[in-house]
From TrEMBL:
Pfam families: HTH_3 (PF01381). It comes from the Bacteria. Residues 20-74 form the HTH cro/C1-type domain. This is Helix-turn-helix transcriptional regulator. Signal peptide: none annotated. PROSITE patterns: HTH_CROC1 (PS50943). InterPro entries: Cro/C1-type_HTH. It comes from Segatella sinensis. The lineage of its organism: Bacteria, Pseudomonadati, Bacteroidota, Bacteroidia, Bacteroidales.
Length: 102
């Protein structure tokens, strides 16, 4: 298993871009097709896949996932958590946790 904590953010974006390219190719889609379906420019897709973009917004990434049919992968990334007893208080859900100032 890869230790992602060892990587800088730009390195992680580069890894994510390369992985996205693999998914796109396995989906039998060209960059042009992804561009047309997502509304993202081909240049942005190319730079993301080749690790030269430096960064992409979360919104852009989500549009790209939708275009290649992988938006459901979000459930694996951040699955729903069961209710927390710590955040429940007398059957009311606590909306905010405040820490006392020292």
């Amino acid at each position: 298993m890869i230790d992602y904590y060892e990587y800088s953010i730009p390195e992680l974006v580069k890894l994510l871009g390369a992985r996205f390219k693999d998914y796109r190719l396995r989906s039998n889609m060209t960059q042009k097709e992804v561009s047309e379906q997502s509304g993202i420019t081909i240049t942005t897709i190319h730079k993301f896949e080749n690790g030269t973009s430096g960064n992409v917004s979360l919104g852009t990434f989500l549009l790209l996932l939708k275009a290649i049919g992988q938006i459901d992968a979000l459930d694996e990334l951040m699955p729903d958590l069961p209710p927390s007893a710590y955040l429940m208080k007398e059957e009311k859900k606590v909306q905010r946790i405040r820490h006392k100032k020292s």
